[in-house]
Amino acid sequence: MTRSVFDKLPQRYDVLQKQALPNWQAFFSTVVEYIPEGRVDILELASGTGFLTSMIRKARPEASITCIDRDPAMLEVAKGKPELKDVTFIEGDILRAWPEGTFDLIVSTQCIFALPVDDRIRLFGQIHDSLRPDGIFIEGDIFRQESRLETMIYRSQWKKYMLGHGMSTAEVEEMLLSLDRIYDGIDTIQELKEKLKAAGFENVFCPYWYELYALIVASV
């Protein structure tokens, strides 16, 4: 999703996730499915209020989790969740506030698509270099479609979903306008796969795709 509406409303962020992301249960549960069980070190980029983090903690209780987000209000909400009391939170830009060490898995949802292309490419290199052997990167985002017809249909379906799940007309219009402003610069699924391979990733594949949203999994 675009973060324009969400950045203004950290206390409603978790509710808005469900109102703005069609099939949100399938989207996030697929993310969790690709996280190995046991004692793994996880880095979550742009973690927001810990919506996904809470799901990861419930499904992978032995994992060590570090989260980065630039919004202090979002982080305060996350820190207030009892299930996340042992999570390490870092306030900062994901392009700069990078923790030392390496990780078994790095995950990002609904963030990287909005970065300028040069920053995306640089970040993918940083992610690759921060993963251990056999490490995994999971990227869940909005993707540009291959045809104008697909874009028109999926955009219309997205609008109907948001309006039908409790978002105000003003919020929906702001979401759509924010997406329209950057849409031409967003990667298609294939373009993102190519960028990840260029960064050194192998076995890049798409286990989930529903209209505008998809998940890409890549291994080192």
Using the 3D structure, state the CATH architecture. Answer: 3-Layer(aba) Sandwich
Name the poorly predicted regions. none
- The CATH C-level class name: Alpha Beta
The fraction of residues assigned to DSSP E strands is 15-25%
Structural class: alpha/beta
Give the overall silhouette: globular
How many helical elements? 9
Can you lay out the helices and strands and say which pair or pack?
Blueprint: H1 4-8, H2 13-20, H3 24-33, E1 41-45, H4 51-59, E2 64-69, H5 72-79, E3 88-91, E4 103-109, H6 117-129, E5 131-142, H7 148-164, H8 169-182, H9 189-198, E6 202-210, E7 213-219
Parallel strand pairs: 1-2, 1-4, 2-3, 4-5
Antiparallel strand pairs: 5-7, 6-7
Helix pairs in contact: 7-8
Offer a quick outline of the entry.
This protein is an alpha/beta fold and 220 residues long. It contains 9 helices and 7 strands, in the order αααβαβαββαβαααββ. It has a single domain (22-144, 186-219), classed as Vaccinia Virus protein VP39 (Rossmann fold).
